[in-house]
Amino acid sequence: MHDMDDVVREFLVESHEGLDRLDQDFVALEQRPGDRALLGAIFRCIHTIKGTCGFLGFAKLEEVAHAGETLLAPLRDGTLALTPAMTTALLRLVDAIRAILAAIEASGAEGDGDYAALAGELLALAEGGPAAAPAPGAGPEPATGAVAAAGPVVPAAAPAPAAEVGVVERRQGGRRESDRAAEGHAVTDTTIRVDVGLLDRLMNLVGELVLARNQILQVAAAREDGVLVAATQRLHHITTELQEGVMKTRMQPIGHVWNRFPRVVRDLGLACGKQVRLEMEGEETELDKSLLEAIKDPLTHIVRNSVDHGFEAPEVRVAAGKPPHGTLRLRAWHEGGQVNIEIRDDGGGIHPERVKAKALEKGLVTAEQAARLGERELQQLIFLPGFSTAERVSNISGRGVGMDVVKTNIERIGGTVDVQSTVGAGTVLRLTIPLTLAIVPALLVSARGERFAIPQASLVELVRAEAGGGARGIERLHGAPVFRLRGRLLPLVVLADELGLGPAPDGREATSIVVLHADGRQFGLVVDAISDSQEIVVKPLGAHLKGLPVFAGATIMGDGAVALILDVPGLAQRARVLGDRAAEALPARAAGAGAARDRHTLLVVRVGARGRVAIPLADVQRLEEIPRDRVEWAGNREVAQYRGGILPLVRLSAALGVPAADDPARPLPVVVYRHGDRPVGLVVDTIVDIVEEAVQLERPVEQPDLVGSAIIQQRVTDLLDIEAIVRAACPWLPAAPARLPAEVAA
Amino acid sequence: MSARRQLCTVRLGGLDLGVDVTGVQEVLREQRVTRVPLADAAVHGLINLRGQIVTALDLRPRLGLPPRTDGGPGMTIVLRHDDGPVAVLVDEIGDVLEVDADACEPPPETLQGPARELLPGAYKLPDRLLLLLDTARAIAVGTPA
Predict the structure, then answer these.
(1) Is the ipTM of this complex over 0.85?
(2) What is the CATH number of the domain that holds A228?
(3) Which domains does chain B have, with CATH numbers?
(4) Tens digits of per-residue pLDDT, A115-140?
(5) Which residues of B fall within a CB distance of 8 Å from A499?
(6) Pair B52, B46: CB distance under 8 Å
(7) Contact B96, B8 (CB under 8 A)
(8) Cβ contact, residue pair B47, A562, below 8 Å
């Protein structure tokens, strides 16, 4: 961090506060262009910034602020009427000031953005002419790109219906923004600014006080000393009240995040030609500051998404018998120890058929799966990773984040997201967020006598394996432990092994499995014992341990000892248990990709003279050995009875056109492959190994049954396009992960 | 007139070490320690310091000393650090001595290895040699990649 003067820091904090208010004031101004009080407030804010930065020697900032002030003065005095072009120019001024402030904060200097053109434009507008109104896109943009990050730059020549766009209506007894601003100035006398770090420390100390109090309560109860009991009771009440008080100091109204939405909605509405009214209710609903930070980006994404994709164009709305302007309604309220946030639009709704087609196109679901999904389940598909992709990111709402990221981020803080949509009537997104992040429910487990906490948010279920392996115990696929969970192979991570805690003292194998999910996949964590779940206070680890991705922090248990909190995604990554998501879709996608380098978990098998070939493990359902006398015939095909059904067998050697080299005395090794939801048995000669490697896929030869070749374990190994092989060998099977023709606008 | 400074003396694996008192936050009896798997060898574990979780370091591997074998009760000194306090395990804690800067000499050439970087000087006391511990360096333990 650049060494910064206290004066400058104070200036930055104050200016940011002022700018946040400005965004709203400007939007409100468009509805009431003649509001002199509002213009006065805006003028004062810019004037203050200009004055202070002149004093601090920030010349560039002073120049643009001065130009803005020059335009604002006649507006405030009523000698000039506000036009949408002026509003847009003034909003760009706010962006420019923000960019410069960001540069000052980062480097102590004003950065190398050039704002002379913007200043010129503001001055020209003040002269009373549209004058130098530049063509869209030709406006001055800072080299730092900070403006772009703050929101889309609206073309200066703004389209006409500006006054209709981004109308803000607050449902709190009709209080207007200007009234609130006036009140805001009055309350500053009774508030002070406190460093968040100090609050965090207080919070920590209070947590410790609560533990100490609990101990004293126990001691006092055992002593039967009336005076002591009375004193501890008082201590008890005071501590509880103190704890609540300190927790409250970290609470902030959700309005702090919502404040920027009027501007977002206005800019975006203008840019995509939609007319949107924004209504907000329950802005005073409070939640922990850290949570507020965490939901800021997801909420912004949802709002942008709604304006961009949710609402129809005005003429479409009118044709459908709706008012031309759409209504986006944000609501927040407390309920059952949680904060509920609802984002409701009256747009076109999510069309289940379009979602389905898109999910099929992306290969996220199979045709059969999709056919079974109801309308509501189809709508939930928008949360699947990979649903939002590049073609949509290019336009306004996307910045490479899809709804899956929104969902992941909300779930990371222990919240939930749900979508309900009615075609033609609109969409409602509901978020539930815990009140505070500092305390999370966790499951306590132990390995080799050490206790670890696992956040409940990652937990799926608890399973007990039978001791001694076998079909109901922990099995090993060439060293890699797996467990059969309802017919699926669940990859396992043995906690004690992964953390290097050494072998169990009594040699007994752990059989308790905690099923966890990370990145949308599941794996099992094998622990020695599962104790119980309890609420824990999350504390960060010191600098010496920051490099350990396996731990998310630590907590202090009821007995005063420290327990580490496991970071489930970090653990999964370290154990490489999930492989890469790309591995699953590899055969389908790799055709177009020349070379891909990624970690994949691959099953290496030997097939006749072809030697070693690899199959993505994600495609493998199970490994079986089928006695040769159990191979039967259906028509002219080899099949086997398998789990109450008929398993078609595909001899890979035959499919690849090479002589088999298996041992006729031994049962047939069969890789059960999931083709859509139909199992297909691939007969191989031997199962060699399961490897997890960064695979550099190349295509030295073009062959239809190959995805490519890679060097695996120092040997060239062909990666089979199982999908193509099965399709060729069993043409009667329904097409699995169908790749339907494209052209889906979500 | 020579500069004088106060050193807190500690014993660690047979060495007499001096730690500048201004860098010492507090001294604790042996604490309950939670191991941190996969961490650097010098990280002994985590302790609960009045609700604050503090990393406890064992400087023996950094000083090239063998692991402690006598099993006696240890002590912990908590050092101030920019990123929050850091605890260091020692065998015993002695008095605070006022030493003369003139009495300080570079450590003997025979002191080799990683320890030399952490021990920039030795004070000649009447009865023994006191090695100055550079606490800032001693607690700058890298995190594993």
Answers:
(1) yes
(2) 1.10.287
(3) 4-138 (2.40.50.180)
(4) 888 888 888 888 765 444 444 443 34
(5) 37-38
(6) no
(7) yes
(8) yes
